[in-house]
Amino acid sequence: MSACGCGCDVLLLEVDAGPHDRKNAIVSFVSSHTCGEDKVHLLHEVNTDGSLGPQVPCQCLGEACDCGEEDCTCCCEVLWIIPELKAGERKRYQLCLGSASEDAGGVTVDIEDDQKATFRVNGDLFMSYVFKQEGMARPFCYPVYGPGGKIIVREVNIPAKPGIDHEHHKGFWVAQGHVNDGEDNWSEMNDHATTECQELMVLAEGPVCGEIMALNDWMSGRRGAKHKMLEEHTVVRVYNTPDCCRVMDWFINFVALEDKGFFFGDTKEAGTLSVRLKESMEERNGGLIVNSYGAKTEAENWGKRAEWVDYCGPVDGETVGVTIMDHPSNHGFPTHWHVRSYGLFTANQWGIHDFTGDPGQRGDLTVRAGDVLSFRFRVFIHAGDTESAKVAGQYLNFIHPPTVRVVEQ
Predict the structure, then answer these.
(1) What's the fold here for domain 2-101?
(2) Band of the pLDDT at 357, cuts 50, 70, 90?
(3) First-to-last CA distance in the chain?
(4) What is the pLDDT of residues 17-27, one digit of tens each?
(5) Is the CB of residue 324 less than 8 Å from the CB of residue 387?
(6) What is the rounded CA–CA span in Å between residue 289 and residue 291?
(7) Which CATH number does 107-399 carry?
(8) How far is residue 230's CA from residue 263's CA, in Å, rounded to a whole number?
(9) pLDDT at 4 over 90
(10) Secondary structure (3-state) at 392
């Protein structure tokens, strides 16, 4: 460790691509530097001759102590994005504290009319998380824009337009069709359960990402007085990637109440994270479904396990795609996929008897009082098809990102 011109301690970091080519890889490092209102983290590339290169946008996500001391708050998690790094290549950076520079763009989040949180990437509208609206059954994301400003999800209307199929399919959403003794928090049929947002917070905005947290209550829809069944604490993080793609992470936590647990029953009518794609992208309209094992079409993908599934198709004359990636820490990994030729696309850990055709195989899960069931997914929205977008490489960025180490000076 040495000091920069302003007297602050600096760290020399080395990022190693490992055995894979990297493109728009998100890098995380837990720093012992703690920032504040007067000082922020500053990151610079280091040239091969040891001289200081250009400044790199980075962002602190707050306390992330890994020093081992109980209740210590001496560390911060710092994020940045590496545009490209070839397999086996290493790149060095200098990290220190300094004065904040003028706003150079990034991801912003606006709460509009106390109804939706709208993400913009460098001023361009990307997505709105709708958390309160008259007549809605549960939060959803609409609109969602892909490369070239093209909407990649089916239009959402409340109430639904006459004749629309599966009216409960709204943008991106979180839902489950069998909760406790048969409550239905998936459909919008009679006496369905609901998800009601109690609070929405903007956790982060900045040059690398924007982040919200929604605190949602899952409420019963039948069988006597309406009551809370569990809580859903969902964090959505959107990254400042180039216009050719958009990347967002979903951290979904199902929290059991302190006095009672909850039960998720085996059913295909569920999706821990789901999306209903734009009509032109559907397989039946020329789209293509591909999974991590190379299976193609609904026939080869529906109900099958895979680390990721990509669904691409034409939008306004150009091919775009959406990938949902399952994290190895998730329950049921690799998940089954409830993915259809009509544009429904969901990670479903629950409907095993439906997917296998064997009534003896079940995806039932009981979560005890006070416990938390956590999931993490990455969504990659891209130009081009699965191969040209290098989806497999993006999955490795998710589960095996480039490593970062401190270099002794």
Answers:
(1) Immunoglobulin-like (2.60.40)
(2) very high
(3) 6
(4) 999 999 999 99
(5) no
(6) 7
(7) 2.70.98
(8) 10
(9) no
(10) helix
